[in-house]
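Students often ask what a holo structure prediction actually looks like on paper. The answer is less mysterious than it sounds. You provide the chain, you provide the ligand, and the output is a string of discrete structure tokens encoding the 3D arrangement of the protein together with pyridoxal-5'-phosphate.
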Amino acid sequence: MKINHENNIKFYSTNKESPSVDLREAVQNGLAPDGGLYMPERLPKLEDGFFEHLEGKPFTDVAFEVSKHLFSELDIPECTLHSMIRAACNFDVPLVEVDKDVYALELFHGPTLAFKDFGARFMAQLFGYYGKEANEKITILVATSGDTGSAVANGFFGIEGINVVILYPSGKVSPLQEKQLTSMGGNITALEVQGTFDDCHKMITKAFVDENLKQSMKLASANSINIARLLPQIFYYVYLCSQLRKAGKPIVVSVPSGNFGNLTAGIIAKQMGAPIDKLIASTNENDTVPQYLRSGVFNPKPSIDTLSNAMDVGNPSNFARMLELYGHDLEKMKQDISGVSFSDAKVKEVIAQVFKQHKYILDPHGAVAYLGLRNYLKDHHDSVGVFLETAHPAKFFEAVEQVIGASVPMPERLKKYTNQKKQATLLRNDFSELKNFLLTKN
Ligand SMILES: *Cc1c(COP(=O)(O)O)cnc(C)c1O
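The corresponding structure tokens follow.
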């Protein structure tokens, strides 16, 4: 396989007011200085024969082959890349046939039982590598309303040279989520803020521009728009194609979407040459993108609370990336993506029905994707469909058990949190408390 080592992919800002940077800077900056999101300047093409070669290969092999196209020797040496992928993707990614030509790609077998483990763990590896190379100690600040914080904490746990400080709103995350955030210890510190998620976010924003802090430590952000979280999500789209290509049918992938990072990775995979016929943007009642696909008007709204709460986003930030990938051409976007949204009532109904008919337990997020897929397959009988299952149903057992009338088996790694001890420092909603903590305790 021929790989061009000289010509590494640069990343430009979607606002086009900041210079293009290489991978390292894009990862360490998170957001571009002009407030835009980083995007690759070009997409590598998966060559002819790529898929034949990978048929039946394990997930990490596929991930490695894809990443060799995305990252050059200049970005990360190949042997380092290999060990990073093995460390980040150290869990199964089963493709489960739920019904004839309907598959669940289960992305929830990582340590926090949600697909965010892919992005967070790979990002942590990149931060660790670049920090070690420069011999820098880095403090990562994250604000979380729940799942992102635990995925990030798990990803960074034990990575040398990095401390992670998580801020979460007191009393506003579920008891299990709180245990996941606060019981890790080691290089992970949890701060319980007497305020809302927005307050946590504001405190962090202030920290990044504070002169005293800047002088005494290197702070970095691990927020959801970091390109390092997006890129590893391309791996599983290519993987599912490598597994299903032999069916010889058009492949359709339904993506349960909130902030649209997952779907954006799917578009990139398709544009790199993965044989995906159609992507379905499946949402709950936060339907800003499906509405855009219908009307051509992007009308962000405040978010609505739903059962699939990790998708309660009214103004998806990755939309800017989607526009870039289609040159701001709605018609082109519509050729690749179809959008559809569903109510909680429909979600509950389908969770019950799929359990009854197929003995498969959907979580509320995967259920939205399943609905989107079924809706599409009604008029496309010749396709093979995959819906992305992004969370383990046990994470939402209260809602799911009520609907299916049976208990959801609790995986060991989730159970173990319930016995662990919460370790968190209580902070008032006051920036000076955070600053003081960082300067003295960290
Ligand atoms: C974050 C999340 C989503 C939404 O993914 P986006 O990339 O933000 O569209 C879907 N399901 C689960 C379980 C999530 O945690």
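The chain has 20 helices and 13 strands.
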